[in-house]
């Protein structure tokens, strides 16, 4: 089920890390936030409660697996989880690794920057992303789905 004009129906929404039957994991292109992931439900639904109980459990397990691996691999100060959908009313969860050096910390990534981006910190995290993406795909796919992590 797709909706014409929905950016998450019409495009991948970022670099696809994992593509499964029900959801995909993408790494978003968000300047200054290299470990900004989204778990995107493939069917166009606006709200979490639009899913049945089994699909809600599957979706939240995916979010939890992404958070756990981000924490394990990157050791961020905090991981932010959000499912706003105000601008793009297509069910997706943001999973964002936050570091004390990031330009917005401790404010939300959507707030005004508090300081210039830390190029060294961004580069150090970006260096780890290929391995993290591969681990995320393996965990989410469990032998199923398509891994597109490079």
Keywords:
alpha+beta, globular, six-stranded antiparallel beta sheet, 150 residues
Structural commentary:
This protein has one domain (7-147): HIT family, subunit A, CATH 3.30.428. It contains 3 helices and 6 strands, in the order αβββαββαβ. With 150 residues, the protein is of the alpha+beta class. The mean pLDDT is 92. The protein has a 6-stranded antiparallel beta sheet, with helices on one face. Helix 2 (53-74) packs across helix 3. It starts with 6 loop residues before the first helix and ends with a strand.
Main-sheet strand order equals: 4-5-3-2-1-6
- Could you tell me the CATH topology label: HIT family, subunit A
Number of helices: 3
Shape: globular
What is the architecture at the second tier of CATH?
2-Layer Sandwich
Strand proportion, as a percent range, falls in 15-25%
């Amino acid at each position: 089920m797709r909706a014409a004009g929905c950016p998450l129906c019409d495009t991948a929404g970022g670099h696809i890390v994992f593509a499964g039957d029900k959801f995909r994991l993408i790494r978003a292109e968000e300047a200054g936030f290299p470990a900004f992931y989204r778990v995107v439900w493939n069917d166009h639904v606006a709200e979490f409660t639009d899913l049945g109980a089994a699909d809600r459990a599957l979706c939240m397990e995916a979010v939890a697996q992404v958070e756990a691996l981000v924490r394990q691999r990157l050791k961020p100060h905090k991981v932010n989880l959000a499912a706003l959908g105000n601008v793009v009313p297509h069910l997706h969860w943001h999973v964002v690794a936050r570091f004390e050096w990031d330009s917005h910390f401790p404010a939300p990534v959507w707030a005004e920057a508090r300081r210039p981006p830390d190029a060294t910190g961004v580069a150090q995290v970006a260096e780890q992303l290929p391995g993290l993406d591969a681990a995320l795909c393996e965990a989410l796919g469990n032998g199923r789905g398509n891994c597109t992590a490079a």
